[in-house]
Specification:
Elements: H1 13-31, E1 37-40, H2 45-58, E2 63-67, H3 75-88, E3 91-94, H4 98-103, H5 106-117, E4 126-132, E5 141-147, E6 153-157, H6 160-188, E7 191-192, H7 198-203, H8 224-233, H9 238-241, H10 256-259, H11 265-276, H12 281-288, H13 292-308, H14 310-313
Parallel strand pairs: 1-2, 1-7, 2-3
Antiparallel strand pairs: 4-5, 5-6
């Protein structure tokens, strides 16, 4: 057995890009019977790579991009999305979803939960949720990190009820976006592309019937570092390829490892690969320079997230069988595994 290192994540990018493109053509035409693909592009690496692969598969004329900012979105995210669309030559539509989110109570419900923890929180404040513990091999807890208009920082532990309310309210963002994706997919007779990478798909880092809903998910088998490599192989603009993974959900800038993952994405890639290939925690610890105990805690964190997010992957449960199961072997449909 060779020593564990990041080289295990190496990929023949040209062959893989062609393989994904061939599968996208097959799924779009023969499985889903659609004319093209809709991709919501956030300016992040995953949606950018998916849009590029869709163009590689079908051509720019059969790919439609949606740019869907809201009140808390980074201006740079939308600018990267427009840069990507121009680079790929695809049609796009930009829709500000903030009014819809305001109308259904996304911001009000979120802020009410924050004020129960931090009563002084109000107009002009910004905040994010951060995860604490996993990076140091401890049990994860969620904390609220807020910044007042004068730049002062405030940190509080989030009780379960307030954490759940903030997350439930912000999940409106992904679900409203998905509603628009399916509207345009139905209008154009296109299919909807889901953009999770392997880390997100495996660890349940998506919103059920939000960004977890799609007709086809072209990069759910690729580790995050492989997605970055694929984006560079496909010749995407450097500004897109250099984008740091972000949730782009809260008003304070937030990295994905702050909010959810136990390690930064490149290290998490290797940890997930090592776990799936039966490599001992001590070997992972040596490869990452974090020690065996910390590496074992990462393995435990992966297992816990798989267990607690299993619900997100479940299709609707039927009380009784209503007819013959679908004949197609494809499990990427709207009611399929998220």
């Amino acid at each position: 057995m060779t020593a564990l290192g990041f080289d295990v994540l190496g990929l023949d990018l040209a062959t893989e890009a062609d393989r994904i493109a061939e599968r996208l053509r097959e799924v779009t035409a023969r499985v889903l019977h659609r004319r093209g693909l809709v991709v919501a592009i956030s300016g992040g690496i995953d949606s950018s790579c998916c849009a590029a692969l869709a163009v590689h598969a079908l051509g720019a004329g059969r790919v439609f991009g949606l740019i869907l900012p809201e009140r808390d979105s980074s201006d740079d995210s939308a600018e990267r999305a427009r840069l990507l669309a121009a680079h790929l030559g695809i049609r796009t539509l930009t829709v500000d979803i903030a009014p819809a989110l305001e109308a259904i109570g996304c911001y009000a419900e979120r802020d009410a939960a924050v004020r129960r923890v931090l009563p002084e929180y109000g107009e002009g404040w910004r905040f994010k949720i951060v995860i604490d513990g996993g990076m140091h091999g401890r049990i994860n807890v969620f904390r609220l990190l807020a910044e007042d208009p004068q730049g002062g920082r405030h940190e509080r532990t989030l009780p379960r009820a307030e954490y759940l309310q903030v997350v439930a309210a912000t999940n409106f963002k992904q679900r409203i976006r998905k509603t628009l994706e399916y509207y345009h997919a139905d209008r154009l007779h296109y299919a909807v592309v889901g953009t999770p990478n392997r880390l997100e798909y495996d660890q349940g880092f998506f919103v059920k019937n939000g960004d977890g809903s799609a007709d086809v998910k072209p990069i759910a088998h690729l580790y995050k570092s492989q997605v970055y490599a694929m984006a560079r192989h496909l010749g995407l603009p450097e500004r897109v390829c250099a984008a740091v993974p972000s949730t782009d959900t809260y008003s304070l800038e937030q990295g994905q490892d702050e909010f959810y993952f136990a390690l930064p994405h490149r290290q998490m890639d290797l940890a997930l690969w090592a776990l799936e290939h039966g490599r001992p925690a001590a070997e992972l610890g040596e490869a990452l320079g974090i020690g065996a105990a910390h590496a074992q805690a990462v393995y435990t964190d992966i297992a816990n997230k798989r267990r607690t997010t299993r619900y997100l992957h479940q299709p609707p449960v039927l009380v009784d069988q209503t007819g013959p199961p679908p004949s197609s072997p494809c499990t990427c449909g709207r009611e399929g595994r998220q």
